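#struct-pred
JK: can someone run the complex with adenosine-5'-diphosphate? inputs below
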Amino acid sequence: MNLLIAVRRSLGWKLFLSYLLIVIVAVVVLAGTANLHTSTALNHHIAEMQDALHRGPDAAADLDASLHAALNEIITVGALVAIVAAVLVSVFTVRRIVTPLQAMIAGSEGIAGGDYHQRVAVAGQDELGVLAMAFNQMADALEQTDRRRLELVGNVAHELRTPLSSIRGTLEGLVDGVLPPDPATFLGIQHEVARLQRLVQDLEELSRAEAGQIPLNRRTVGAVELVSPAVGRLQSQFADKGVALGVDVLANLPAVWADPGRITQVLLNLLGNALQYTPPGGQVSVRVWQEDLSLLIAVQDSGIGIDPEHLPHIFERFYRVDKSRSRAGGGSGIGLTISRHLVEAHGGRFWATSLGAGQGSTFLFSLPLAS
Ligand code: ADP
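RT: done, structure tokens with the ligand placed:
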């Protein structure tokens, strides 16, 4: 049973058995043909042998020659038939190995030419089957990358269009004299240019994060040191909007192994979102506690919440639940994608929960402990 499984999964075993099969077929066919052809061959030479017997002193030598001739004929006919049988069996076994390889060569050429739909049939569990499976996985990954690249180009073009149209409209209004050249008009243009700049910065950061090229200056950092900078920077904005901001860091928490600058960037994104999506009078809290070998950091708000159907997508780049609301707040839908990459680069996990629209949301991430 084990041998059967080993043979199924090993190309080496299959090649060995196919050689053995060719040899066995050749030998059996040779023996069978020789048996069948013996009487015919002897009949061909029987007259010569009878002549030799009547010839007296040279009888032995002539008989020997006739027997050899009969034997040669039997072997030649048997060998020819055996070769034909061996060639037929070889063609069959070689095709079983070469056909999937040819399919993979054709598939690779298709992919090299930009056709990412190429897939090959997975036949068997041996190394060729495994190779075909790996080929299909590679084709899947390439197809997804290509799709994401096209999506990215489309999204970037879309994101650039709105501020550019707005700037162009304002400039045309100024040229035609429809809009007054006063500070309010120029502030509008400045606002759109700032949005474009933020978008370009976010895109640069995103491409570096996705390529895993953001350097991390990791060191041992305490929990309080980790959350204080971001909280300190946004405190006045929370107060201005009338949203309460609470911080709850458990005492004696172990330190984490992290880049504090990058974690501040993540917290600024989460707190900025919480502030944007929580109406005045609401609450936002930052909590830190330990779970196994990680510190967990949660930013919870009592804001607009996120419907379950949107939750799995909010970490995708350019995904925004409410496009107009996000855009009005200067959002491009890239912040959470970058934050997720930053947390994952630290070896942590990032996720969100919400009971639905109007029920607030919680964003959580984990960071590995320093030891
Ligand atoms: P943006 O710059 O648009 O805020 P993010 O990547 O930070 O981009 O967030 C993606 C989307 O996730 C937002 O557009 C918003 O729809 C949703 N979102 C993020 N944080 C919150 C939150 N605290 N409450 C409700 N929705 C949120």
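RT: quick notes.
The radius of gyration is 40 Å.
The longest helix spans residues 59-112.
JK: thanks, will look after standup
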